[in-house]
Specification:
The chain is mostly helical and 217 residues long. 76% of the residues lie in helices and 0% in strands. Helix 1 packs parallel to helix 9. The structure holds protoporphyrin IX containing FE (HEM). Protoporphyrin IX containing FE (HEM) binds next to helix 1, helix 2, helix 5, helix 6 and helix 9. The site of protoporphyrin IX containing FE has 19 residues, from helix 1, helix 2, helix 5, helix 6 and helix 9.
Length: 217
């Protein structure tokens, strides 16, 4: 069991680092267009062409897959271990709604990632869907793809609303990951609780407002 939880924790922490980098890159979208288009498209091209970043990207895909697969296994095993959990409800006093519903929240995040990859990754990396234009430097115009997508209010709402389950998941997940990996220090746990909250707020609010700002720009 520890090995499975350890895999969830380690891959989860790696995904947390990815989200900081990804949010910083996407913040470029908020700069004035003359600067943002070139910078965003160059960043995206570098991601696709650098051999080192390609290795990191494969690690990222593997982390997402292992994180989800092991989370499903642990959830199923936990349910089997508590077959009569609805007969008498012995919830731990400190267990929150989020900790009880990590599976459900995870499904929303998975749905987000699948649609998100279809919106960008499938177009940019696999060349699927309508043909993608080039910018003045000859880079794939990912900036344009993003701005076009966020002219559609349904996508804007989808990208913004789904950041709520992401925030809840990160807030609980970051704390749990450190505890699983052996972080039990009393005072440290209090600091960790605050760090998790601030991290989750920055990531979810940061990603959530970008589509709104692009839409109303
Ligand atoms: C404002 C919100 C977001 C925007 C505008 C955005 C934009 C993008 C773009 C343009 C790409 C393609 C990168 C490229 O190859 O050029 C991408 C890839 C990706 N995004 Fe996002 N993203 C957003 C939020 C998120 C969130 C919240 C997550 C995770 C929960 C996420 C996970 C990913 C993953 C896993 C990839 C594939 C990375 C790769 O292949 O290197 N994104 N995103």
């Amino acid at each position: 069991m520890f090995l499975r939880k350890g895999v969830i924790a380690a891959t989860g922490l790696f995904l947390c680092i990815f989200l900081i980098v990804h949010l910083s890159a996407n913040a470029i979208l908020l700069l004035p267009e003359e600067t943002a288009r070139g910078l965003y498209n160059t960043y995206s091209t570098t991601l696709r062409e650098s051999p080192l970043i390609k290795i990191v990207a494969y690690l990222l895909y593997a982390s997402i897959i292992f994180h989800v697969v092991y989370a499903v296994i642990v959830t199923i095993k936990n349910r089997r271990a508590k077959p009569n959990k609805y007969a008498v409800n012995h919830k731990l006093e400190n267990s929150t709604w989020t900790s009880q519903n990590m599976g459900l929240i995870g499904i929303f995040i998975l749905l987000f990632i699948v649609i998100h990859l279809a919106n960008f990754w499938a177009k940019v990396k696999l060349g699927l869907g309508e043909s993608v234009g080039l910018d003045m430097d000859g880079n794939v115009d990912v900036y344009q793809i993003t701005y076009s997508l966020f002219q559609n209010i349904y996508y804007v709402l989808f990208y913004t609303v789904l950041m709520v389950p992401l925030g809840l998941h990160l807030n609980h997940g970051l704390k749990s990951a450190f505890r699983t990996l052996g972080f039990y220090h009393r005072k440290g746990l209090r600091v960790l609780t605050n760090v998790s909250l601030v991290y989750a707020a920055i990531i979810s609010v940061g990603f959530g407002i970008i589509p709104l700002i692009v839409y109303f720009k």
